[in-house]
Structures are given as structure tokens and as C-alpha cells.
Amino acid sequence: MDDLLYKSTRSDDYTVTASQAILKGLADDGGLFVPVFLPKLDVSLEELCKMSYKEVAYAVMKQFLTDFTKEELTTCIDKAYDSKFDTPDIAPLVEADGAYYLELFHGKTIAFKDMALSILPHLMTTSAKKNQVTNDIVILTATSGDTGKAAMAGFADVPNTKIIVFYPKGGVSPIQEKQMLTQKGNNTYVVGIKGNFDEAQTAVKQLFNDEALEKELDDAGFQFSSANSINIGRLVPQIVYYVYAYTRLLRDQKIAEDEKINVVVPTGNFGNILAAYYAKNMGLPIGKLICASNDNKVLYDFFSTGVYDKNRDFILTTSPSMDILVSSNLERLLYKISGASSKVDKDLMGQLNTIGHYEITDDMRKELKDFYGNYAEEIETAETIKNLYESTGYVIDTHTAVAATVYNKYKQETGDETTTVIASTASPFKFTRSVMDAIDPNYDDLSDFQLVDELSKIANVKVPGAIEEIRTAPILHDTVVEVAGMKDAVKKILGL
Q: Which of 90, 158, 416, 484 is 20–30 Å from 255 (CA)?
């Protein structure tokens, strides 16, 4: 099989291998790397049913990462999906209230980002070897709460790498913040910014595109790469768990072969639902892709009107990982629905950058028929957590509750009873106060860690190790800067 090459969404000038795309993170023109075509699964669903998570991962990822040898890829997979996960299933399905919750939070930092960020450091160091890279790789990333911790946990003390994470001070949950600020590792750095996630993400992209800084880094033996969902090495591992979920339903005779399922994904940056879309394009029988937003409903408005408009108030919600107004991965979908036109994509991204909004054509809108978008208000999110707990005893986090709320709206609107998988993106222990407030407002006077113990009791679930280990851990990172000071912070950390 010929290597599957990658190109930028914004130009047709050049192609790179998968390993080169993983190393770079972002294309030189600011575009995102996309495969020149979407490959198909070359293993039958029947065969996939008999496979473990690791084996399914190999079957999916080998189609995208074709310049990795079998040995290289299986080694990366073996190192990623090991005892870091608290269940051999890696991503178990739990049936509750007529839907299947795909629990993507059994990794080291109890959020779905672990699914990809457990393997990215291994893909990246393998890619560096393959491409004779001698510079140290500096992972530069902005986080809305989960990516930062999961990336640091993955890259901590990995030789020849450093990781710098920017997060919005006051814009993440107390547990999320403590997870980041207590992160060990001689190569890990956390910086709070006085701003929101979109401002952090925009500034990080500018640092990537700063040619003078790139030269300064190179002279000092460094080069940037990204652990954000814009990196193709993040996106490809996410496709795996949708294939895995389908084959578990098939194996357990919950669906018939080739029967379609619907997938509901709570999303801010659009990467997680794009992975489901890619899985569908690979041949997985998915019907509707249900895109769930919180009060920052920029994606709901886009699917409803064809207009993407970031010119609006930024709302802080109880589902902070989705408090995003610039959904970076949507660019990959725009590229696909424009007939792979880098010109259209570049034009739309230019409009987003200069005037803050764009509108797609009617022909492009027709290509979105697989998608349904809706959103959940804060009060609805809380009600969903409470109702699900009271009717089933199952406790979900705020982000998963956004998805469950939107799924209920979809069913009421359409009457569609198709078997449905809801991506459960974080453990309720990560957002304990919001979850416990939803279930019973009388918990107000308890501390965050007292709430953890109470949640463990009512949900009949053991407190995850990720929470236990930060209970008494010392704060190791305390830097906070203005958005304008991010570049100086990076240079100071790297001794430039």
C-alpha cells in the first residue's frame, strides 16, 4: 500500500507523511493537516468484534499512519493503552435510560483526552526518530481544562521533549486546575493567563506562525509541536473508540451487522465529533452525528443557519471544556464539504480572522445532512444529571449531561429510536461541585474533596486514583501572565 500523505487545508503546494504531520502539528500556512483521502476499514466488522481495544486501535490507525512500521505502531499502542487505564476494556459502554454511554474517562487524568494523549508522546518521539530530528520538541498547547493535564501526564519526563500549557485562570474547574498545578515532571510547565481559552488558543497559533521565534528556537535546539486536537496524531486515535463501541454493540447482539447507530458528542473544538465523522467515512455504519453545545452555542447556530459567527459574549459554564467560540477542527470539515478546496477554506478562515464570521454556500450546507446540532442551557444540564441519577443511579459529568440533554431534544423532535452511543467525555469526579449541586443543592458547605467522598458514596463508585493523588499534592506551578505576555513566558521557560 502506498503511503497516505497529508496536506494543508489552506494550500495545495506540498504534502507530508503522517509522521511529519504529527511532528509539525500545524501546517506552515496556518492550516490543519488532512489526509489526501479518507481510507476505508480493511477489516470486517465481524473480525473487529473479536479484537481487543489495542487490536482495534491498530486496525484503524494503520490506515492513517502508513509510514509507521507494524512494529513501531504496535509498540506505541502497547505503551499507551496499558495499566494507566483502570479497566481492560479501555473504553467501556454503559447502558442507562435507553442509550449507551461510551466512558472515555478511564485513563490517567479521567477525561477523554487521555484516549489520544496517552499515545501521542509515543507517536511523536517515534516520528522524530523517523525524520532524524535532533532538536528537542517543545509541545506548546492551550487548554480549556482537560487537554493540558492529559498532555502533561503523557509527556512528563519523556526524553527530548518539553511541554508548556496555557490555561484560562478562573476558567476551569477547581479539580482541573489542581490537577494541572500539581503536575510533576522536569519538562512540564503550566502558565495561567488573564483571559479566556479562545484568546489562549489564538495566541498559541500566533507563536507557531512566528518565523523569527522559530529561528530563535532552532538556533537554541528547539522546535514547536502541538498536543491540541489540531494535531493529526490526536485526531486519529479518537476514531478508534467509535469503531470499538460499534463492534462491542455488535458483539453483544445489541445491534445487527450493518445496522446504523447514532452518535452524540458534546463538543467545543469539534475534534471529538470530527473523529466520529471520519469513522463514518471509513465505512462504520453511523447514521446521525449529533453535535451538542452548551450556552456557547456557536456550532448549533452554524448547523442551523450555515453562518459561523464568533462575535458574541463568551459564557463561562459548568462544562468549561466546551467554553469555546473558535472551533478549530471545524476547518477540517469545511475543507471536506467544500470538495477539498483549499481556496474556499483559506477564504473562510480569512473571514473568521478579520471580521469574525463567515457563511457557507447552499451546496456546502447540503453536505452537512449527517449532522444535527442543538444545545443545553445550564439549568437543563443540571436537570439531566439529577433525573438520570434519580431514575437509574448512574452519575454523569456536566459535559456528558450536555450531550444527554441534546439527545433527548433530538428524540423529541424526530422520534428517531436508532440505537445511540453518547460520548461520555469526563468522570463526574472532575466536576464534583457542579455535579453534586445538580443532584442536591444541600451539599453547599462541603469542601471539594468532601464532595468527592460524598459522590463516591451516592454513585457507589470508587474515587479515581487521579483524584486521590492530588488531594494532598503540593502546588508546583504558580505562573500567571497577561495574554500579551505569553511569548515572553515561553522564551523565559526555554532560556532564550
A: 90
